[in-house]
User: Fold Acyl-CoA dehydrogenase from Billgrantia tianxiuensis.
Amino acid sequence: MSDTSFLDWPFLEARHRDLAKHLEAWCQRELPRDHADVDATCIQLVRDLGQAGFLEGTAGDGIDVRSLCLIRETLARHDGLADFAFAMQGLGTGAISLFGSAEQKQWLDKTRRGEALAAFALTEPRSGSDVAQLDTVAERDGDHYRINGEKTWISNGGIADVYTLFARTDEAPGAKGLSCFLVPADTPGLEIRERLETISPHPLARLGFNDMRLPASAMIGQSGQGFRIAMAVLDVFRSTVGAAALGFARRALDESLERARNRELFGASLADLQMVQGHLAEMALDVDAAALLVYRAAWTKDMGAERVTREAAMAKLYATDRAQQVIDKAVQLHGGDGVRKGHIVESLYREIRALRIYEGASDVQKIVIARSCLAQQDTARHK
Assistant:
């Protein structure tokens, strides 16, 4: 049984505790799922999460980041694919929620009900962390845009019903020349060029755009606002990546505590060995520290902060990096079982690694934090 004392922290309210209780009961009944066919499983998970009402807060006005974090942490603790399915509904529609027109927001009813899957198409072969280097081009053609280019590592690629796509419209060099578009999956010219396999199977794809035509009304926000839109979306959802890592780490700690109590070595339980106790203490410390950073960032955003770039970067960096260490210790404590395919800690070991890369790699988060600290000091000096 996982420690739930964090639910009483002042960052959270009674409604969050009710949500956690309701979701935990659902997870106990519904998870984990069979991952043999990840496409079919993801589609069904989105439908089931929608029918249960857990997708309501992923889109629309007034997104509650603490609720998103609680849901991702809980789902990740039970089933990494369930967390993935939930997360993409929010990230994939974030631009529509924050900047979309009334017509574009009609998609949100479908995604919240689990009737349509969403995807966030930003990364390209030549531009991952450096968003300003996007090569996909959207050229104005009368009352349409003609789009050519390629995206890669797109979550839900190949199974999504709607994509938010970022492309260069060249109002200015670099980041200032990007725009965002809403792209239904059946748009002619959108190609699924390759399905990508990773160490922890998720639906990912390389997308191509071959003279894809979109009406001008497909643009989300204003021309040239694409970078701002992407950063605003990530500002909301980056903390939730830390929450997913926290869920993985909390499950690894739970499994390790159980292992330590029930496994004997040299005539005593593992739990009696001081070295093992040291490992468990470090794991518990990392879990609690990560939780504090994650829910601080989420609370700060929910309290009305326009940007939480620094707080979200700290939460994601610390939670994902330390979760990797927690899970590594869990594998070590489980011995041979820890690397046996299908064992829970083995699956956690594969699940956690990608979180240190996507939505801003760990090294990029360090740059973000350092720049924020330097800027804060400069501001203080000039007051």
